[in-house]
Amino acid sequence: MLTLETEGQPSLLDLCDVSGLAYSAPALIETSSCHVIVAEGPTYLVVAFRGTNPHELWDLIKDGEAITFNDTVLGPVDDGFSSDVYSVAWRLLPYLQGLHKPFWVTGHSKGGAEALIFAAMCENLGLPILGVTTFESASPGALPLVSELGGIDFECDSDPIPLWPRTNLLVPGLRPRALTHIGPPRGLIPNIQNHFLENVRPYLIEYMKKQGA
How far, in Å, CA of 108 to CA of 110, rounded? Predict the structure, then answer.
């Protein structure tokens, strides 16, 4: 298991870096389109969902399943992303319960949307979730259970992914919380380069300095 040394709770940079490691570290649990890693800190865990791997067909298919439905437990949620989460939850939930530590959830892009859905699931079950922070996440659905959890959903520069419509080209995708903007002000021309974590990270450091974090 990956380890973190930050005491108390993970820093925003820790969460960003674990989200990045989800692309390369061996999965704790994975399916054809969902890849989850877990890092352990002194008193907490961090669960990270991997974003889209453009070389994997099933990831791209899930990105394209832009249908919102009303989950009887979670509320309005994206079908493709939620099916990913359900496909790993039956193994991931007992694993986390067995470690007896509170945890954060995080992810980037597609993984950010899945992190928010998983966080809603954990909140509904009364598990010791500390919060959920995402980076450039696609819209996961309204997820009212997430709205009171700690954490931040970051968007960077003019990245189009966080605002990309999922069900209607004229209506932005549903989200449980407002996005926190970092980097240059959003412009009219999309900048997909600042969707990638290596480009987001310097702006996150600037944000942390301004917040005194």
Answer: 6
Dist. CA 83–CA 32, nearest whole Å: 12
Structure tokens at 210: 């301004």
Strands (E), the chain: 2-3, 29-30, 35-40, 45-49, 68-71, 75-78, 103-108, 129-135, 153-156, 180-182
| Whether this model's pTM surpasses 0.85 | yes
d(CA 84, CA 122): 15
Residue type, 9: Q
User: What would the pLDDT profile of 51-100 be if each residue is shown by its tens digit?
Assistant: 987 666 655 566 666 677 889 999 888 888 899 999 999 999 999 999 99
Total residues found in the chain within this entry? 213
Report how far residue 104's alpha carbon sits from residue 118's, in angstroms, rounded to the nearest whole number: 11
d(CA 159, CA 7): 32
Architecture of domain 2-211: 3-Layer(aba) Sandwich (3.40)
- Give the HSE-up count for residue 72: Cα atoms under 13 Å, Cβ half-sphere: 0
According to DSSP, residue 172 is labeled P
